[in-house]
Amino acid sequence: MTALPIVAADTAGLEAALARVLWLADEHVPLLDSCMRYMLANSWVGGGATRFRDMLADQRTTMQWAFQSAIDNLAEQIQALGGQRGPVPRVTSVMNRVGGPDPNGFLGMDVTAMTGLVRDLDHAGHALAMAATRVTGELLAAGLPTLPAKQIAGAGAWATSQVPDLKRRLVILQQDADGGLTSPAMAAFGLFGGFALGANGSSYLLTRATNGDTSALGELQALQRTNPDPQLSAQINAWWRQLGHPAQEQLITTVPHLIGGLNGIPATTRDRANRAYLGQQQDEITRRLTQLRQSSQDAKDEIKDLELKLRQIDSISKSLALGGVKGIPPALLLSVGLGGLGRTAISYGDPDTADNIVTSVPGTGTKLDGFLADARRATVLWEEADKSADQRAVASIMWFEYDAPQLDLTGLLADRSVAAPYIAKRAAGPLTSFTDGLRASHQVGKDPLFTVLGHSYGSLVVGLAAQERRGAFADQLILVGSPGSGAMKAGELGADQVWVGESPQDFIADIGHLPVKGERGDKGVITGTLSSEGPFGTDPSDYSFGARQFLVQGGGSGSSYNISSHSSYWDNESISLKNMGLLVNGNYGRVVEIVPPKPNPAPQPPPVPPMPSTPGEPSIQPVPSPTPQPSPTPSGG
Q1: Is residue 210, in this structure, part of any structural domain at all?
Q2: 283 and 175: one domain?
Q3: Which residues, in sequence order, are CB contacts of 484 under 8 Å at separation 6+?
Q4: 269 and 148 share a domain?
Q5: 95-154 per-position pLDDT tens digit
Q6: Which residues contact 42 (CB under 8 A, 6 or more apart)?
């Protein structure tokens, strides 16, 4: 047998290696195609889908070109050794990255299709890892660089790294999916941990929190107060649900104040965390007070601050005790902040499962150590709404998370004055973030009626918040004793219904009639300039504002003002309380509504006698100017 020339023997081995790599390419190059087809078919739209789709496309392209590079290198080596190289097959393919539109905000996800993507991604990851090992051996044996094999292995590692997180999220999505599509609240954070990135860096913070950096939760709280992203609460809700029970319990135990303060966390979880934090604070403050009272007089200021916090804790505890008795549902503590004026939000009824949710915002003079009176208003409103709820669950929330203006010496300062809009502007962000959280954590499959009620200065906070989240803040607004909403017309508030109730004797509400527009001077002093509107926009009780008005008890418009009328809207058996209870449930047909008067026709000018004329000239008759007609007064919100 004649021995083959050494060159022919070498090329024969290389040709066999080329055949094996071609077979590997034929088997593995299409592995990521099905995943791309799922994405291009809009199986997942919004919530980071575009970013993931582009990364998937890049990995697919890199992997295919790596196989092509290995094939080309082997073919060139064969030719360099004198072998006959035929046409080199092309194994790469092009797939259009541009699928359907990826609109702003999350739309939905086909859970069945995404389950297929998980399966195919998992298979591709393991198969590409094995293929990369075999390609590495072929290239090493041929004395060629192994970079193509490393690129194939990299694509496989990327696919494998996506699968665990994706599987965890799919378990949640399959539990809550309705009709094949998930809800925005469940998937706005995106199926993949860091793919729903926003300009505010929320996904980066959530990823840090997942990895054990609890300081990121404090940064998220601060981010929510500025509220740059209406989907932030939904991201937090999805992140929390995919954490798993052990991780959730550890966070509740170690940093309850951070978990309890995050909008988007389920209400019952926030309640547990906030109550735990409240107990911890009470114990720590009591111990510290004991130490300070035994020390020098230098501790007076700290003692005063700690004693205030204890009064605030006592106020919260008494407010929570209003729940769970006399038919009122148990109270849920949704937020707590001690010191200064304090802050809290307490819900009577679970807002995550309620059919009708009303969030009340108190006004001037509100302090946490005197919060019990505001909490009682929330329970009274729940009781009244429950009478007409017709088996629907009601949740009544009292939200106090802003520095309300005070009727004391501090209230005379420009930045704390009841006549200044700056406090309300700062409060609008936290309020919109809170309502975002109510939507994000609400039970999937229900379509609750969201109502936000603003009293006194709180109605200005509500009005400004509604304009920040125009069309997505609340289904309806109720303004009582309102000096203004920051809007000239009810339509600017972006709610389906805007209702106003005002007592004729409520002088605070009549601030809306004052023709003074507040402005801040160089030294922070409020200056006034005459204008056609009040300091906070058009008076909501004026028919020209365009809101619907409900009847409130009280005397005629000529009756004298009295301070008690400003807080009389929740009086037992009052017509205003009954009307508000009906509004919470959307029972508009039973509300005693004030119908605006029809405009009076404009008076006609008296006839003008003919002017005398010179003999022989025609008589000249003056033509009167057209009579201006009053524009119709709007009656709906």
Answers
A1: no
A2: no
A3: 459, 460, 463, 511, 512, 534, 535, 536, 537, 538, 539, 540
A4: no
A5: 765 444 444 445 566 778 888 999 999 999 999 999 999 999 999 999 999 999 999 999
A6: 99, 100
Residues of the domain holding 480: 251-594
Q: Per the structure, how many domains does the chain have? A: 2
Residue 499: strand, helix, or coil = strand
Residue 478 lies in a domain: yes
- Of 169, 187, 205, the one marking the end of a domain is 187
- Residue 611 forms part of a structural domain: no
Residue with tokens 């005790």: 321
Q: Which residues have CB under 8 Å from 495's CB, separation 6+?
A: 466, 473, 474, 475, 476, 477, 637
- CATH number for the domain including 132? 1.20.1260
CA triplet 131, 141, 1: central angle to 5 degrees? Answer: 120
- Burial (CB count within 10 angstroms: exposed 0-12, middle 13-18, buried 19+), residue 100: exposed
Per-residue b or e along 147-177, where b marks 16 or more CB atoms closer than 10 Å to that residue's CB: ebbebbbbbbebbbebbebbebbbebbeebb
Residue linked to tokens 């939000």: 345
Q: Is 574 a domain residue? A: yes
CA separation for the pair 311, 323 (Å, rounded): 20
Q: Which residue has the tokens 């937020």?
A: 335
Res. 270 pLDDT band, cuts 50 70 90: very high
The pLDDT tens digits of the residues spanning 420-441 come to 678 899 999 999 999 999 998 9
Residue 567 to residue 506: CA distance in whole angstroms: 9
Contact, 309 vs 285, CB < 8 A?
yes
The model's pTM is 0.68
